[in-house]
Specification:
Two copies of one chain form a homodimer. Chain A is an all-alpha fold. Chain A has helices spanning 21-37, 44-50, 55-59, 65-88, 94-106, 120-135, 140-145, 150-166, 173-193, 206-222. In chain A, helix 8 (150-166) crosses helix 9. Chain A binds a DNA duplex (30 and 30 nucleotides) through residues 15, 20, 22, 43-45, 53-57, 59-60, 64-65.
Chain lengths: 229, 229
DNA sequence: CGATTAATGATAGTAATACTATTATATTTG
DNA sequence: CAAATATAATAGTATTACTATCATTAATCG
């Protein structure tokens, strides 16, 4: 099977890293390094050492380390959308489609051999720990104009439109979906680090519990026959 | 009326800034400056210039700028808890208490003259834009051990216990509350910067809409008679 | 195949950041 | 008034986040 590559917004990079060996090494190793060190401690210098290259070479692919992070997380949401499409395409009932999306969102992330140079487990930990840093910056509006959050927005939009089909009168579809997309990762962070803020445990059961929580929140909220809708 | 001060966890600072003039200037001006510049662009040097003091003097109050942020946001949650207590103390019905808490969470924040050197409007914008950065760091576990997230955890715990009273069988109270506390601010951020991710508008109606959204999510989820509980 | 072009490496340099350290000078307190 | 403490003034350091230049290697193409 040939290695698949996502067509990501080309403002995310200066040179497309998916198409060269060095680029792939940058993606692969930056994921491992950001996962290990955290985004603040991660530097292009450390990455350069790791891949036996130089800072200057990395700067030819990414304008700065923040954009590299935005790239990695855009990749994640593209991957999510791709999986959601695969697993919902054969499903007709929009409620079932919605459940499938939540299941994919909540499930434990495992290595997907479709994408050779991506370690999805590390990437998921990065999303859990660093997602918010992509948009919580004074530069949001510029990044947004360039379409750099397109992946996340697309996932959000598609799930929201499922909700619109299920209950056209529910007035908070977009808010509900963005809340759920973000809380899915946040709750896993809390389970590991701030357990009093979550009802999930830190063990393996947490993915199923997370799914139950998300399903409960979503399906209760959008039920047509509740006095709050 | 005397100026009130909160008793915050004393690991938050090296010297209590509420008790000296310089300390109060640090709090007051750091709020305005972080609000203006964003946390990344904010430095102790710029703050020192602003208050006609020196970096070294500020470092005698706060170990580093991250802890100053944690301090400011801890102050915010203490203030929230204080307001929730004031406005729920006369209310008997736990459902009404819960609604009051959500109302306080969602409402537009205005200057509270009880706290002279705090600009609550600026502080709220800081919470919206920087809250997640307090705990999304490799040092979370250490900060947590020192009790630096006590304010947030306390608000979360108190609201969760209201839910436990309303419906003892609901199994996700802590997750639901932390989700709501965080999304309340996140949705306001989206309304200003990423409107496709929210069902709120960017105008003044957003606080009421936000309240409706939160009330809907919470009360639907915890209803005893739904098949998801 | 040789020549052009493009990608990478090697190296250097810079302004700013996040501190630490030292000493002098105010200011408060007992 | 003396002693202790808080603050200011100043300097210095390692690191970061870049930018710039030029040499070298690899890919491409007539």
């Amino acid at each position: 099977m040939p290695t698949l590559a996502f067509k990501l917004n080309d403002h995310l990079y200066l040179r497309d890293p998916q198409h060269t060996q060095l680029g792939q090494k940058i993606i692969h190793s930056s994921m491992l390094l950001i996962d290990q060190l955290g985004f603040e401690q991660f530097t292009f210098k450390k990455l350069a050492e790791e891949i036996d290259s130089t800072e200057a070479s990395i700067y030819r692919y990414f304008e700065n380390k923040h954009r590299l992070l935005v790239y990695l997380i855009a990749w994640y949401w593209n991957w999510m959308e791709y999986r959601m499409e695969i697993f919902t395409s054969a499903v007709a009932d929009p409620k079932e489609k919605l459940k499938t999306c939540l299941r994919i969102l909540a499930e434990e992330k495992k290595y997907d051999p479709t994408f050779e140079f991506v370690n999805e487990e590390a990437l998921h930990r990065i999303v859990i720990a660093e997602l918010d840093k992509t948009y919580l910056t004074k530069g949001v509006d510029d990044l947004n104009k360039e379409g750099l959050f397109g992946g996340f927005k697309s996932v959000c939009g598609k799930i929201a439109s499922l909700i619109h089909v299920i209950n056209p009168n529910y007035p908070f579809a977009e808010s509900l979906v963005s809340t759920v997309l973000i809380t899915a990762n946040q709750q896993l962070f809390f389970a590991s680090h701030l357990p009093s803020l979550t009802s999930l445990e830190a063990n393996e059961s947490r993915y199923n519990r997370l799914y139950s929580f998300l399903e409960n929140v979503v399906f209760c909220s959008i039920k047509a026959d509740n006095k709050y809708a």
